[in-house]
Design brief:
By secondary structure, the chain is an alpha+beta fold. It has helices at about 5-15, 20-25, 30-40, 55-60, 80-85, 115-125; strands at about 65-70, 90-95, 105-110, 130-135, 145, 145-150. Helix content is about 35%, strand content about 20%. A 4-stranded antiparallel sheet has the order 2-3-1-4, covered by helices on one side.
Amino acid sequence: MIDHIELLRLIENDAKLSNEDIAVRLGVSEDEVVKEIKYLQDEKIILGYTTNINWEKQLPEHCIGMIEVRITPTKGKGYDQVANIISQYDKVSACYLMSGGFDLMVIYEDKSLRDIANFVNQKIATQEGVLSTTTHFILKKYKANGIMFDMPDADDRQAVIL
């Protein structure tokens, strides 16, 4: 029997692990790993596999907006109706229901501040039930998805005492 949590943690930390490597680490057969991964995919526990990319190095024209959205929940559907509409846009990388001073946090990626502002103005603010928005822009990434960005190289110099 495969430990789901241990398997999921292995894949989450390194999605490039082969089924054979996973089997060795878990002490099970490769066939068991294949069946378990298929089961986890069928049950929508494993939703996909991603790669962490430092887009700032590849696309200098890359901007991320974090958009706080306050909405009036609709009868019978709550916040889901507005959240589902907003989530359908391709450049929305995440949408979360939040506690606190606003209801939804929308992460939107585009080429410029103006493109993000236009999205907020034309697509979010026009949704029925949206009361207000506040947009923040990421100026620099230090860490995302557990991965550090632009770590300074270790200083291997020796101290010299005169």
